[in-house]
Amino acid sequence: KNEVEQSPQNLTAQEGEFITINCSYSVGISALHWLQQHPGGGIVSLFMLSSGKKKHGRLIATINIQEKHSSLHITASHPRDSAVYICAVRANNAGNMLTFGGGTRLMVKP
Amino acid sequence: DAGVTQSPTHLIKTRGQHVTLRCSPISGHKSVSWYQQVLGQGPQFIFQYYEKEERGRGNFPDRFSARQFPNYSSELNVNALLLGDSALYLCASSRQGAYEQYFGPGTRLTVT
Predict the structure, then answer these.
(1) Nearest-angstrom CA–CA distance, B63 and A66
(2) CA distance A7 to A89
(3) CA distance A20 to A7
(4) What is the mean pLDDT of residues B41-55?
(5) What long-range pairs does B54-57 form, CB within 8 A, spacing at least 24?
(6) Mind listing the pLDDT tens digit of every residue in chain A (110 residues)?
(7) Exposed end of chain A (fewer CB within 10 Å): N or C?
(8) Nearest in space to B82 (alpha carbons), one of B4, B9, B14, B11
């Protein structure tokens, strides 16, 4: 079993829909990252969380440390949100090393 | 400020050859991490360097090595290339003591 599991693996939505991507992990962590990867490979860091909730524009990320679970929400989705969204955790005592989930491929149709 | 830069962008090598990938961190960042991303999967940690010393190593064979230079740029070397080494190699930099990592655009390596 992978240390970081994401669901769903693939997601297709209509423009304007509310989207939720989930991430579960099995180890104690000091931080969790949500990353966005567009075709071509470049990765952009969206959020880094250690507790609670963060919001940036139409994106919201939450984390429940006790349940070892995080969610990424996209409100009023748009075709330009189409990308792979990756959850990554920094395990306790792992320095700066990140362990990644397999990613969620999101396609938003107009 | 420029972001993390990597070179080359794309590379095609033959089995058994050697490859060197390069990464320049964001100015002021002293930590560089390398990741391998095979098509369709999430990235896998290879190495982390901080202040020119190896601070972490993932589950990769000894064919993989890296180093960090006094200007904090880094090289990833892979010897005796295998077909399975074909992947996107990502470099990320971060400041001293901080956890936010900034990723470069990656080097796509194809081994034929």
Answers:
(1) 40
(2) 15
(3) 9
(4) 91
(5) B55/A95, B55/A96, B55/B31, B56/A94, B56/A95, B56/A96, B56/A97
(6) 679 999 999 999 999 999 999 999 999 998 999 999 988 778 999 999 999 999 999 999 999 999 999 999 999 999 999 999 999 999 887 777 889 999 999 999 99
(7) N
(8) B14
Rounded to the nearest integer, the mean pLDDT of chain B is 93
- Choose the mutation target among B4, B32, B37 for the interface with A, i.e. most A CBs under 10 Å: B37
Q: Cβ(B76)–Cβ(B69) under 8 Å?
A: no
Q: Which of B29, B62, B38 is nearest to A103 (CA)?
A: B38
Whether the CB-CB separation of B51 and B30 falls below 8 Å is answered with yes
| Cα separation, A86 vs A105, whole angstroms | 9
- Which tokens sit at A59? 């994106």
* Closest partner CB to A45 (pick from B35, B50, B101): B101
Give yes or no for A3 touching B (CB within 8 A): no
User: CB distance A41–B41 less than 8 Å?
Assistant: no
A residues 16-55 closer than 8 Å to B (CB): 30-31, 33, 35, 40-45, 48
Nearest CA in chain A to B87: A41
Q: Which of B82, B95, B81, B109 is nearest to B33 (CA)?
A: B95
Q: CB pairs below 8 Å between A and B: how many?
A: 66
